[in-house]
Amino acid sequence: MLRVPVMGVLILFNYVSQTTIWPELAILGVTPDTALIFIVSYGMLRGEIEGALFGLAAGFLMDIFGGEYLGVYALMGFLAGYVSGKPFRDFFKDNYFLPFFIVLGMALVYQFALYVALFMFRGHLDFWFYVYSIILPKTVYTAALAIPLYLLVHIINKRVETFENNRRSLFEDKEND
User: Fold this and answer.
1) How far, CA to CA in Å, does 143 sit from each of 36, 58, 68, 104, 130?
2) 142-167 pLDDT, tens per residue?
3) Whether 11 contacts 64, CB under 8 Å
4) Residues 44-96: tens digit of each pLDDT
5) What is the 3-state secondary structure (H, E, C) of the chain?
6) What is the Cα 138 distance to its own chain's centre?
7) Which residues of 117-128 are buried (b: 16+ CB within 10 A; e: fewer)?
8) pTM
9) Between vectors from CA 81 to CA 79 and to CA 83, what angle results, nearest 5°?
10) Rg, Å, the chain Cα set
11) What is the pLDDT of residues 9-38, one digit of tens each?
12) Which of 145, 147, 72, 150 has the alpha carbon at shortest distance from 111?
């Protein structure tokens, strides 16, 4: 099962890049949510169960090292992975525009849910300021990176599936002898 260590490396790579590289490339003080792109991409490629587990792990890592409340990002990642994996398991995986639109829609919903969970309940009720200064710029920046990062996850997923299929066929041939 090569998939589990590859998922772990991808989650760690994302966390390190999101905390070191992307703050230096902030536009108008906003950084992209690359974790959401990886979660949606993995969910679309591997299905709702693996997408949900990937989202849970990525969100839990964000909760542990940078979240204000434990479990908010884990729950959001879990739901994003599950929702993005449920209807798109059997789509044409080489279509790169569908992930763009899914990430765009998911980023809007994700950022709004984060506003409700992290700001509105603490009494920060300036919704339109939050929409114009955080939700819209972060959604656009995240969607702009959706296609290249989906391509990266797609290539990694293809190689892992090829390796696992070759290994599985190797063991099946030995059983038949």
Assistant:
1) 10, 19, 25, 5, 18
2) 999 999 999 999 999 999 989 988 87
3) no
4) 998 899 999 999 999 999 999 887 788 899 999 999 999 998 887 667 777 88
5) CCHHHHHHHHHHHHHHHHHHCHHHHCECCECCCHHHHHHHHHHHHHCHHHHHHHHHHHHHHHHHHHCCCCCHHHHHHHHHHHHHHCCCCCCCCCCCHHHHHHHHHHHHHHHHHHHHHHCHHHCCCCHHHHHHHHHHHHHHHHHHCHHHHHHHHHHHHHHHHHHHHHHHHHHHHHHHC
6) 14
7) beeeeeeeeeee
8) 0.89
9) 65
10) 18
11) 999 999 999 989 999 989 888 999 999 999
12) 72
The token pair that represents 67 in the structure block:
């979240």
Q: Would you give the distance in Å from CA 26 to the centre of its chain?
A: 19
Structure tokens at 76: 């959001």
What's the residue count for the chain? 177
Residue whose C-alpha is closest to residue 55's, from 27, 77, 82: 77
21 token code pair: 């590289």
Six-digit token pair at 121?
Answer: 């309940």
Q: What tokens appear for 147 in the block? A: 């296609």
